[in-house]
Amino acid sequence: MTSFQSTLGEESGIAEELAESQQAISIAEFFEKNKHMLGFDSGARGLVTAVKEAVDNALDAAEEAGILPDIYVEIQESGDYYTLIVEDNGPGLTKESLPKVFGKLLYGSRFHAREQSRGQQGIGISAAVLYSQLTSGKPAKITSRTQGSSEAEYFELIVDTDENEPEISVEETTSWDRPHGTRIELEMEGNMRARQQLHDYVKHTAVVNPHARLELEEPNAHFKFERGTDQLPEETEEIRPHPHGVELGTVIKMLSATDSQTISGFLQEEFTRVGKKTADSVIDAFRDRHYGREMRWTPPAADEGIDLQAAVSDATANKGPDATAAFADAIADAVADRERIAHHELLALVAEAADDVAGEHGTVFGETVRENAADAVWNALTDAPEEAVDPDEDAVAESRLVADCYELADAATSTRKDDDVIHGFASRLAAKFEDEDDDRHRLTRRRLREHVDRAADLTEEYDEVSFGDTARENVTDAVWDVMVTVPDDPPLVRELAGDRDATSDLVDAMRATDIMAPPTRCLSPITDDLIRAGLEKEFDADFYAAATRDAEVHSGDPFIVEAGIAYGGEIPAEGGADVLRFANRVPLVYQRGACATTDVVKSIGWRNYGLDQPGGSGLPNGPAVIMVHVASTNVPFTSESKDAIANVPAIEDEIELAIREAARELKSFLNKRRSMEKRRKKQNVLGKILPEMAEKVAEVTDREEPEIDDAVARIMNNVLVERRCEANGDGQSVSLVVENHSSTNESLEITDIVSAEPRNLSEGATAVEMDGEWFVKWEPEVSSEDEAVLEYEIADDAAFDLDVKGVEGAKLTVNQ
Ligand SMILES: Nc1ncnc2c1ncn2[C@@H]1O[C@H](COP(=O)(O)OP(=O)(O)OP(=O)(O)O)[C@@H](O)[C@H]1O
């Protein structure tokens, strides 16, 4: 690059020279340089990105219009080129907007909307059109039909890359069999090397959009994903910005556009989650930043010998002795009642005393008298010398402020600090207050910290001690905490709009104020039931778990994280678990390694949850699929191609919590499965040995072979369900006994199907007749080591059939 530095100042016309090298950059050049950021860095990837952009838009458009999406994707091979066709049944596009949507970068409906949608930037589909045009030289062919119109519009469109404007080469009406929707046909250089990614994208889109019908036809494959539900995702609503997420420039713009006159009105009108109370808190925080707080000093104790009455009396002229004394007493008493007092508090207190005494004595205490009285008291409070620090030593007259500062600094610093050091520091800090131009001792926190730093630096220098950053911060906090917000009226909106620094104070105040998280009606999570159902549809596994977290906020944008896990069954056991990533219901196919989702999965100690994890970190091994969905009004992607979620700590925390929630379910499933396996082995052994022993015992003792089911149940800690029948007149009494020998409480669902009508059924059970059979239903809860009994009477020749649910097979012994 040419350097102009050496010639600067000597010659005129540098700006002109520079201007000569400045020129507009065409969209084509911009695209060429940045195509990797937009997801078009290779022919293989370009095709997948184009499909993704078109399908995402199609889903967004249909859902927004309340239409169940029906999307058809076709890829045709034509020599070195591929033709991509995407059709949707959305609301279609108007003749006016259609060219801009497809032919103008940075044109869209979602950039400013605080609402969850797949599209965010207004780049996607026009970038695909540009890619197609730059690689094939062919125009984009677009058909669109709006709801209710009798004909469709057909366009052929080229982007003027110098002007970033669409140029329509063909425009005609046409017929189309879809009643409404959009069809886009793009020819582009490409290849099908990313076939797997393309299939994954379509398949995973179907997993998280069970309300959509998707069809993909490509040279080697044809998939149809039918709708799993007719339920559209919950409708989302746009929300106003949250005070925690707006930048200074945006607030400046909002201030000049608002109809509100006061800051309070502006905050309540233009932002979400701001009512009167929150607006007041923001304004207080603004006052602290903009005007500073006032220091509150301790009033003198009775033994300090400071006579406030006398100070007031001396400052009050011509009011008569009685009224003056009453005025002075009222002020002195009110001050003495305070723990600490700031300048504006003193003014208010003087005004109150003046009004009271005027009422009683009929004497008017005007502005000047009040000011004089307040000045006198303030001087007495802040200028009067302290008594000697140590009466035995030479009396050192010091300001009372030193004692106050000493008390605060002493409490805020570690006990290891020498008393003299604290004292030296306190004197220096008090001196800073005394030297302040503003007699009211009004300081911003920054200015206070400067004073503390200066006093600490001097103390380090003269007392040769260290006064570290933590001590400085603690002292600043302690003093700031006793200082008080001032009651000054904040500026009006029109005054603020022209004042960048004051607006910046307001933005800081908005961020510093505790404000309820934004509402979540702008988000549409998949929900745990549908995540489980989606995983069940696509993966033949033994176990599924899902978790949907509550909404959180990152930079003012609400977000919800969801996670799902599928384990075992037909999922391949070799290699690392598969991580499926989704953002706003869109599968993320590329940049797995650069995604916060993957980072979090790798950082979890999966051994704790029963999965194999070589080295104790990284992706877990085994037959598992881990799915994560981040839904937000603004997903922070690492680049415009929207492949990977950036490492935002608030989002990473939620991803971790969601995965751990699902993983805990996996852990208990795996634990149970392991203990069941052990139990099965033990049962198999006992099942062989015990009958042999029973036989032997019977043989040796010459008795009948003993019943061993009870013994097995006890040894195995099993749940035993046993039928005991006893003849009773011309019928029989039946008892169903549940013995719970396990260590946990059990809830059973027992159905006893009997061939005759049961009588005198004990409480807690019901009998329903169906086709000559009676279904006796009983759902006992049986605590560990407890038993429950159901009794009824029935005909002698009745037949029974017992069905027990609620206890795993391996843990259950049924003896009927
Ligand atoms: N198939 C379609 N049916 C109806 N409207 C559409 C369709 N495709 C695009 N649009 C409209 O065109 C706009 C621009 O789409 P584009 O893909 O360029 O950006 P986006 O989806 O808003 O954001 P992103 O760049 O993040 O994908 C969308 O915001 C939407 O309003």
What strand line-up does the widest sheet have?
Answer: 5-4-3-6-2-1-7-8
What's the helix count? 23
Shape, please?
Answer: extended
Low-pLDDT sequence parts: 1-8, 387-397
Radius of gyration: 40 Å
Bound ligands, each once: adenosine-5'-triphosphate
Domain Histidine kinase/HSP90-like ATPase: 42-192
EC number: 5.6.2.2
Function: Relaxes both positive and negative superturns and exhibits a strong decatenase activity.
Catalytic activity: ATP-dependent breakage, passage and rejoining of double-stranded DNA
Which descriptors would you attach to this protein?
816 residues; alpha+beta; Heat Shock Protein 90; Helicase, Ruva Protein, domain 3; 6 domains; 8-stranded mixed beta sheet; 6-stranded mixed beta sheet; 23 helices; extended; binds adenosine-5'-triphosphate; Type 2 DNA topoisomerase 6 subunit B
Concise account of the structure shown:
This is Type 2 DNA topoisomerase 6 subunit B. It comes from Natronococcus jeotgali DSM 18795. The chain has an eight-stranded mixed beta sheet. Strands 14, 15, 16, 17, 18 and 19 form a six-stranded mixed beta sheet that branches. It has a four-stranded mixed beta sheet with strand order 27-21-20-29, covered by helices on one side.
Summarize the helices and strands and which ones pair or pack.
Blueprint: H1 14-21, H2 27-34, H3 43-64, E1 70-78, E2 81-88, H4 97-103, H5 124-136, E3 140-145, E4 152-160, E5 165-174, E6 181-189, H6 195-208, E7 213-218, E8 221-225, H7 248-257, H8 263-270, H9 276-290, E9 293-294, H10 308-315, H11 321-337, H12 343-361, H13 367-383, E10 385-386, E11 398-399, H14 400-412, H15 419-435, E12 442-443, H16 445-463, H17 469-482, E13 484-485, H18 493-497, H19 500-512, H20 528-538, E14 543-548, E15 552-554, E16 557-567, E17 578-583, E18 586-588, H21 596-603, E19 624-632, H22 649-701, H23 709-715, E20 719-728, E21 731-740, E22 746-747, E23 749-754, E24 765-770, E25 773-778, E26 781-782, E27 787-795, E28 800-805, E29 812-815
Parallel strand pairs: 1-7, 17-19, 20-29
Antiparallel strand pairs: 1-2, 2-6, 3-4, 3-6, 4-5, 7-8, 9-12, 9-13, 10-11, 14-16, 15-16, 16-19, 17-18, 20-21, 21-27, 22-26, 23-25, 23-28, 24-25
Helix pairs in contact: 3-5, 3-6, 6-20, 8-9, 9-19, 10-11, 10-13, 11-12, 12-13, 14-15, 14-17, 15-16, 16-17, 21-22
The site of adenosine-5'-triphosphate (ATP) has 21 residues, from helix 3 and helix 5.
